[in-house]
Amino acid sequence: MTERSSHSQIFDVAVIGAGVVGCAVFREFVLAGARTIILERDADFLNGASKGNSGLLHTGFDAQPGTLEAKCVSDGYRAYCEIHERLNLPLRKTGAIVIAWTDDEAGNLLAIVERARANGAEARPVSAAEIRSEVPALNDSAKAGVRVPGESVIDPWSAPLAYLLQGIANGGAAWREAEVAEGRLCEAIWSLKTGAGRTVKASVVINCAGNYGDLVEAIARPSPFRIRPRKGQFVVFDKSAAALAGPILLPVPNERTKGVVVSQTAFGNLIVGPTAEDQDERRLATVEDSALAALVAEGRRILPALARHGVTAVYAGLRPATQFKDYQIEALQKERWISVGGIRSTGLTGCLGIARHVRELYEERFGELPRPRSVKWTPVPNLAEDRPRAYQQNNRSEIVCHCELVTAAEIEAAFEDPLPVATLGGLRRRTRCMMGRCQGFYCTRRIAEIAAGRIRELPQAAAVSRKDA
Amino acid sequence: MRPVVIIGAGPAGLTAARVLRDNGIRDVLVLERAAAGGGLPRHCGHPGFGLFDFRRVWTGPAYAQRLIEAARGVEIMANATVTRIKPKGRIEIAAQAGLGTIEARAILIATGIREAPRSARLVSGARPWGVTTTGAFQDMVYVGAMRPFSRPIIVGTELVSFSAILTARHAGIHVLAMIEEGDRIVARRPLDLASRALLGVPILTRTRLLRINGLDRVESVEIERDGARSMLACDGVIFTGQFRPEAALVEASPLTVDERTGGPAIDSAWRCSDPHYFAAGNVLRPVEHSGWVAREGKSAAHAILKALDGGLEDIDSATTLSVEGALRYAYPQRLLWDRGGITIFSRAARAHRGVLRLTAAGETLAMRRVSALPERRLSLTVPGERLRGKRDAVIRLD
């Protein structure tokens, strides 16, 4: 490490893509002592597939046993449980119930229990009566179910943010607006040209480019996998509805999708989603009124009392699906390249397991990494309902966002180094401001004032003068 | 223990505070979650406030200032958020100094209203910056001196939608069009017709917003008019109206919520289902102008005065009202028998001419012919005596 540090321009590892997977891989390599840089094409991190998921930490009970995904999800679950306290990340073990609504589905429950056992996850059958007593608001036509106690709710944005920040605090470099346009491997050193005209040199490249994975892969070789983004739309109900679901309510999965989930969020809302729609567009995930209305209807079918609760927010995310079901992770020795592709829906849980797996692949192919003597832990601000929040502190700053109870100081802190927020979406995910039921009705102006020109989209003060009137 | 705590320092809360002070109630506390009192009128910089309650016409901020001055002597705690309503007049607050619990003999809920944002309307498309509500737009323009966009469209034709046009004009913002799904505009008042003629904004009725386009900012919208689709380049979308009570606190409390109004159900003495709680103003239902809301605050304050003296009627000596026919909602939801003349306020879901009728056990207790519009308040008065002993009554518009 010391010898290499003197070649300050050459990194051991360049990670392309700062989504959940990239951030976890970045952290893993920094903490293992590699000189590591992470390159993100967008103005903010976590701006692609990672911004629109369901916020669940899966046990992996329903994964195909023996697959890389099953291993990484199971490892990732354990790793999150080990580190979440030190990073101040929430973990609500609500448990889940897979619910059979038809006799056919009920016939599949035993297979679900057996698969869970093969995956090392706890699961047991529950009767309709047990389900009803646990979820009194549930539609009473449930036939039977499987209880999966380990399934949990986490904060889907703070977790990868914490990985990224811990990587930076321990010496990693992070660049934004650094789309890797081309790269050349010359004498065992990659030169990556980024969109901003800066060049990064690294001895190994790790492709964590999510929905752009196959395009980035083409820098090293013809991509063996092809990304076809799968869109998932979600509807968020107000906090008053959250108590209707205790555990996460899952359908019996089919071949293509895990189906529509009803779950509390770490922030105390209730989500219903996702849909599963394949599309070619890699960047833009639109919401569609018909799909949203169908989700609302499905939510009300599962929990009839949802009819009394309003929709707070809607969103859509793109999952980097490929023609394969399993993760596409491969280390290419000659190309000095590791592909991490097709992390299509379990990335939030799997990422820490993926990171370890990728590091092990690296060490097999490219040599052991030195372990640094000490690791800095960098707790992130808590946004979850079940842990202390900033608005509850004595002598707090003003509450700016009243729906999500976000203080001015929390918004201000999001602009601080080492990772100042750059986009409105980033600010929303970092602080939860404008994410609540009023969607900015009460707070947009105040947030724009605090942002004071630091977020491109938001208007600046003093653009309207008396003269205009 | 406080005698009275008021949640919300808008027109209803501040007016109630003033009336309580004038009647010798000391130690009234008004809790306001924003940095200053005044409520939503603070955001609305054009004239049109005060006529109903002060017999003068002011801008929103001037009116808000007047409400605060008129309540001088009453403690207004700003930056204080009520986080929980518990049984029997106990509330939890997150004040700037820290968390606390407050107990009061009577608590008035006057938390007001907000507009339905894009998400609650399930509109298709991308989710770029530039999509907002009238309230946020006015706050940006009048309080923040900001110009969030320069060529927006306005969705909706309620009274507030025309207020959005005035706001745009103030900021030098050119409204490209105002769109309305119905056959005619919702608002029907002289002011609106005047601004319509004066401001020259094309109003497209029978027009639906299909989709919002744009990655970071709004770039265009797709609309459908009489079955024909077209694209309209614009950089903002202002969703106006479709108000709903700001009643999240109530929804999470043991108090009964009326699904039709979206606010707490009250009796004809402004009491919620727990008699320690009262409610007034726009939290009761969408939506009334500030002067009307202030009058409700005053009336609720008088009911609270009576309650403090122990003179309020038994909460169970009341008829429960249900709503049928072409009505959207009606309140108060419980009609006290000892109240003298009780006026029931309601609104129709859409334009409708017909008979508004209150019946109980097949007997008509009051009726009148009405010409209803969605933004027109309908009232029907019944002597409380005629309700005595009747557990249920129905108000309907046919």
Describe the structure.
The complex is a heterodimer of chains A (469) and B (398). With 469 residues, chain A is of the alpha+beta class. Chain A contains 13 helices and 21 strands. In chain A, strands 1, 2, 8, 9, 10, 11, 18 and 19 form an 8-stranded mixed sheet that branches. In chain A, strands 12, 14, 15, 16 and 17 form a 5-stranded antiparallel sheet that branches. In chain A, strands 5-6-4-13 form a 4-stranded mixed sheet. Residues 1-7 of chain A have low confidence and may be disordered. Chain B is α/β, with parallel strands linked by helices. Chain B has 3 domains: 1-115 and 243-312, 3-Layer(bba) Sandwich (FAD/NAD(P)-binding domain), CATH 3.50.50.60; 119-239, 3-Layer(bba) Sandwich (FAD/NAD(P)-binding domain), CATH 3.50.50.60; 317-398, Immunoglobulin-like (Sandwich), CATH 2.60.40. Chain B is 21% helix and 35% strand. Chain B contains 8 helices and 28 strands. Chain B has helices at 11-22, 51-54, 60-70, 134-143, 159-170, 190-199, 248-251, 290-308; strands at residues 2-7, 29-31, 47-49, 58-59, 75-77, 81-86, 90-94, 99-109, 113-114, 124-125, 131-133, 152-155, 177-179, 203-204, 207-213, 220-225, 228-233, 236-239, 244-245, 277-279, 318-325, 327-331, 334-336, 341-348, 352-360, 363-372, 378-383, 392-397. In chain B, strand 25 (352-360) and strand 26 form a beta hairpin. In chain B, helix 1 crosses helix 8 (290-308) and helix 4 (134-143) packs parallel to helix 5. The chains are: A alpha+beta (469), B alpha/beta (398). Chains A and B meet through helix 9, strand 17 and helix 13 of A and strand 10 and helix 4 of B.
List the helices and strands and how they pair.
The complex is a heterodimer of chains A (469) and B (398).
Chain A: H1 2-6, E1 10-16, H2 20-31, E2 36-39, E3 56-57, H3 68-83, E4 96-100, H4 103-107, H5 109-118, E5 124-127, H6 128-134, E6 144-148, E7 152-153, H7 158-169, E8 173-175, E9 180-186, E10 189-194, E11 199-207, H8 213-217, E12 230-237, E13 248-251, E14 261-264, E15 270-273, E16 277-278, H9 289-302, E17 311-319, E18 328-332, E19 337-341, H10 347-366, E20 399-401, E21 406-407, H11 408-413, H12 424-431, H13 444-451
Parallel strand pairs in A: 1-2, 1-11, 2-8, 4-13, 11-19
Antiparallel strand pairs in A: 3-7, 4-6, 5-6, 9-10, 10-11, 12-15, 12-16, 12-17, 14-15, 18-19, 20-21
Helix pairs in contact in A: 2-7, 2-10, 3-10
Chain B: E1 2-7, H1 11-22, E2 29-31, E3 47-49, H2 51-54, E4 58-59, H3 60-70, E5 75-77, E6 81-86, E7 90-94, E8 99-109, E9 113-114, E10 124-125, E11 131-133, H4 134-143, E12 152-155, H5 159-170, E13 177-179, H6 190-199, E14 203-204, E15 207-213, E16 220-225, E17 228-233, E18 236-239, E19 244-245, H7 248-251, E20 277-279, H8 290-308, E21 318-325, E22 327-331, E23 334-336, E24 341-348, E25 352-360, E26 363-372, E27 378-383, E28 392-397
Parallel strand pairs in B: 1-2, 1-8, 2-5, 8-20, 10-15, 11-18, 12-13, 12-18, 13-14, 21-28
Antiparallel strand pairs in B: 3-4, 6-7, 7-8, 9-19, 15-16, 16-17, 21-23, 22-24, 24-27, 25-26, 25-28
Helix pairs in contact in B: 1-3, 1-8, 4-5, 5-6
